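Here we describe the complex-level prediction in full. Unlike the single-chain runs in Section 2.1, the two entities below were treated as one system.
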Amino acid sequence: MIKSYRLSRMISDIVIYVILGGLGLIWVSPLVWLVFHSFRKEGGVSVPYVFPKEYTLDNYKALFTKTDVFDYPRWFLNTFVVAVFACIISTLSVLMVSYAFSRLRFKSRKMFINIGMVLGMFPGFMTMIALYYLLKAMNLTQTLPALVICYSAGAGLGFAISKGFFDTIPRALDEAATIDGATRNQIFWKIILPISKPILVYTVLTSFIGPWCDFILVKIIMGDNRDNYTVALGLQRMTDKEYKQTYFKQFLAGSVLVAIPITILFLKMQNYYVEGVTAGGVKG
Amino acid sequence: MTFIEYQALTPSQKASYKIKEFFSLLPGRFKSFFAAIGKFFKNLGLKFVGGCKGYGSRFTKGDFATKLSYIVMGFGNFTRGQVGKGLAFLAAEILYISYLAGFGLKWFNKFDTLGTELTHQVIDEVTGRPKSVMGDNSMLILLYGTLTILLTLVFIAVYIANTKAAYEAEQSVKAGKKNLTLKEELQEFLDGKYHVTMLSLPVLLISVFTILPLVFMILIAFTNYDKQHTPPGQLFTWVGLDTFRDVFKVTEGASKGYTFWELTKWTVVWAIFATFSNYIIGMIIALMINKKSIKFKSLWRTLFVITIAVPQFVSLLLMNQILQDDGVVNVIRGYMGLAPISFFNSTALVARVTVIIINMWVGVPYTILQTTGILMNIPEDLYESARIDGATPVVQFFQITLPYMIFVTTPYLIQSFVGNINNFNVIYLLTGGGPSKNPNLYQAGETDLLVTWLFKLTMNSNDYNTAAAVGILVFIVCATLSLITFNMSKSSRNEEEFS
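The structure predicted for the assembly as a whole is:
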């Protein structure tokens, strides 16, 4: 009896391993294809076989040397600068808003929260055109500060997750500090922030990753000013019909170079996200 | 029904009871949702009336200095030892008035017509040569007019606060108390009024770069700003609800109305399929990974999650290339002696099925991430007793896991439904909306969702008013769904316990 139970469990385990392996293969194979073909020497957009015949580093070298049409290093730097500034402003906004909504009690707090939630539900691109003209009136279109503004100005609306985290920190901490004579400002900087590391890192990473992935807003704001493109838009341009034949392999190589740091950051962020959420659960 | 009666039901009766309960509660939920909206506006109105009342009574009760601060802002505070505060109020008044005089008023005056004068040529009297006179720019009038209205609202709030501050300063002097100095007042912003400090910068940013453009675009939906009325060459003006009528009305041939209804149907079908396919497949994979006897759990999880980590534009553009007519999938099919499939350019059905399948590749890892935690929380004894009763794993899945998960994750499901209605990236990067074989669709292809249509209407055909109207309609649907789930979900109920 026990033997047959073990046997059936082993069979079901093997079936599961096979299914997981197969599905895993389906899930990663496009990415594997991406990596292999970014080293491909021959052919243009696609070749009539699965693995490349000859491997080379030329695609990567070309990204950094042939910069007359597609200035990849410059775009990489642009994106980095924009991401750093956007990250600072959005992290501050998110933490400030969620701290105020979570741990301070004031008149019309509920109303602010509701308005914040409703504003977050409009389709994002609805405001694009108006935003464009607004930036134009400020003489900012086709510049990098415009991008920083776009990525960070609305960040305060994304308060939900960190507010959830702050909500779980025991209120007694604040009360004890208040009795000892601390102001709310000191409580925020000296007590709440130091124990909120997971959510802090999570917020920093999400807002840093954002500018690397967006290409719609950049497209509208930058127009034809190629010097100020970000990586995402530049790479998307490489797959346009007129460039695709010549630049497709460079597109693959460029994508790999962006994907590696973002993937590492994302996996890091995932840990902090889980840590933040579960830590909150235990305390609450 | 009591709990004991419920326990005595067979599993299928239990399920049907749950479903019935869900739908019978739904109208009530809608009702309480709209009641909440009504209450919100009622409160706002009451606050406004209260503010006005206080405004009047403070004027009659106050002394001369308080009365004067109704005209010269800050005067009351200034004369009662709060020099800094008084000067701040005065500065606000001067700034606002100079803004109105120098800039705001000239735009606001044309707000009702959005401009009447086109750019035209006149003969210059001095030189005798023709020169062009700048006409009105409806777009700028609307933008700056909206800005002026918003600033005026802010100013009114500051003004009311000023009268209140003046009256309070007077009262505390009468009571023999000393008013706070500027320094004390500022220190208060680090403690008692800390929320003002924390919120002012984000609120300012959000007001200028989110609320102002949003109000502007909502107003655009009520104008005729389209490709025939594009400033600066032409003017546009208010047309009331005409745009919405165009969007709803179906006419012969290619029309916005026909397109709107076709795309709405597809958007709903897409959202249902995309949500549930991801949900069920993702959950099954998560279950397999979480099975006790399976090893290398984190390896399996990383294998799937890594596809989320790669920026979406990379993975989707890649998918687009792989599935092209001469892409690698068709190459492999060629090896196997199968005819190539044109995934994106043949029929609507093929393209639609393709995007739903590819969306599974994109979306399933998210479900795996989000459901893993919940799956581990299902009480183990449920499965144990089921096993003793001889339930097969399939029965266990449909009788225990699925009902439990649906019960716990309804908010998540509705959230991802809303997310899929707005799923711009997948459609835009994979198909670009194509194939466009149906000539009756206006500026859209067969896989276009409402949001990608909105994007095309603004970028390709300059139908700004239609785009704004579509955006408002999408918003209404999404906001209703999200607010209902938010009120249902635990987080909003628990929050009150905290305070």
